[in-house]
Amino acid sequence: MIGLSQDITYWAGTDVPDEFGFDVMIAPIAIKGHWEDRNDLVKNPNGGEFITEAIAIVDTDLKQGGFLFEGKSTVTDPITLPGAHEIMRFDKIKGLSGGTFRKAYM
Fold first, then answer.
1. Residue 40: which residues within 8 A CB-CB, separation 6 or more?
2. How far is CA 66 from CA 2, 23, 35, in A?
3. Phi-psi category of 70—alpha, beta or left, where left has phi over 0 and alpha has psi -120 to 50?
4. How far apart are the C-alpha atoms of 105 and 96, rounded to whole Å?
5. Contacts of 46 (CB under 8 A, 6+ apart)
6. How many CA atoms lie less than 13 Å away from 77 in the CB half-sphere?
7. Residues in contact with 18: Cβ distance below 8 Å, sequence separation at least 6, in sequence order
8. Average pLDDT for 11-38
9. Which of 67, 86, 90, 94 measures 20 to 30 Å from 13, CA to CA?
10. Which SS3 state, helix, strand or coil, does residue 35 take?
11. What is the pTM of this model?
12. Residue 2: per-residue pLDDT
C-alpha cells in the first residue's frame, strides 16, 4: 500500500457561482496523501477523455471541481496559485479487505 504521508491542500467548491460563474471555494484544508505528477489518458464522468497533469491518492473524500495543491497553502483562491490543479475525476473504491481507496485525477 502506498504511504499517505505527503501534505496536500484541498479546496472544495460550494456549487455557488461567483459573479464570473466560477464556484466559490471553501477555505483550504490540509490533508494527507500521495502525489504523482503524471500524464495519463482518463475518462471523465461524462464519458469524455482528458490527459492528467497529476494524480493524488488521499485519505479523505474529495469533490470533483475542487482543487488540490502539492504541499501546504493558505491561499484562499486556488486559481491564483501556480501548481494548484482542478479535480477532474474522483474515484472511491472499497477494497476486499475493508479499506477504501480514494484517487483524484487532475
1. 51, 52, 55, 105
2. 23, 9, 16
3. beta
4. 23
5. none
6. 6
7. 24
8. 88
9. 94
10. strand
11. 0.88
12. 67
Nearest to 69 by CA among 79, 40, 1: 79
> Rounded to whole angstroms, how far apart are CA atoms 93 and 73?
28
Q: Is 44 helix (H, G, I), strand (E, B) or coil?
A: coil
- What tens digit of pLDDT does each residue of 42-90 get? 998 888 999 999 999 999 999 999 999 999 999 999 999 999 999 999 9
**CB 56: neighbour CB atoms within 10 A?**
25
Pick the closest to residue 62 from 88, 35, 94 (CA basis): 88
In 3D, which of 12, 68, 54, 4 has the Cα closest to residue 32?
4
Write down the H helix ranges in 41-89. none
DSSP helix/strand/coil, 21 = coil
Amino acid identity of 51?
I
